Amino acid sequence: FSPGLLVVAGSFAAFRLLNRGLERLVPPPPSARRNRWKWRNIWTSLAHSALPDTDNLSPCRFYLHPEMSKDLVGTHPPGAHSLVAVSVGYFLEDFVDMLCNQKLHQSWELLFHHSVVIICFGIAVLLHQYVGFALVALLVEINSIFLHLRQILLMANLVHTTCYRLNSLINLGTYVVFRIATLAWMTRWLFLNRQNVPPAAYAVGTVGMAIMTPMNIILFYRLLRSDFFK
């Protein structure tokens, strides 16, 4: 038993409660009322991405703890383990939410993505290792803020607005920096440190990168085509 599992369970329950109450906090516009669960789902995802003391402060953690960039296996700052556990709880909640409310052929890509993240982050939580590597992966959530805002604006039928256009530009820029570049750096780190990582963990990390990289490149192409080449 790992105390981190308590944090995972608490995080799952907290995001589940937030999901249930979001419709009162942020009522859906008329254009989104046919898909109320999706409206709640996106706002829940935005709340996770924008947590003030978690994902969007990950770059600060590397600045304040430079030794972590040299050792992503055994070194991590205080609170980092709990941060990863909170994210596992969120991804579990989102997985269950999609499984219960969306058809499989519509959500299989995200379900597959979440499965990979839950396995990789779960290993870090249980073993208290690779927490630094998981923190690097959480840099992706900086872009997720604008990705979720894009979905909210789409559901609110605000596509032809300056706000949507500005968000599209920021979304694309942060996508390149915090998704594509981050995944490339993680892949490079795995390759350079393959002798220091046990075979099982190396296999999980390599498979994870092999799955995540093409998925993110495909999503980037879809965003580019939808927002700029239409």
TrEMBL record:
One of its GO terms (cellular component) is plasma membrane. PROSITE patterns: TLC (PS50922). PANTHER family: CT120 PROTEIN (PTHR13439), TLC DOMAIN-CONTAINING PROTEIN 2 (PTHR13439:SF2). Residues 34-230 form the TLC domain. It is found in: Membrane. Pfam families: TRAM_LAG1_CLN8. The chain crosses the membrane at residues 133-149, 169-188, 200-224. It is a multi-pass membrane protein. The keyword NADP does not apply. The keyword Nucleotide-binding does not apply. Keywords: Membrane, Transmembrane, Transmembrane helix. This is TLCD2 protein. It comes from Sylvia atricapilla (blackcap). The gene is Tlcd2. One of its GO terms (biological process) is regulation of membrane lipid distribution. InterPro entries: TLC-dom (IPR006634), TLCD (IPR050846).
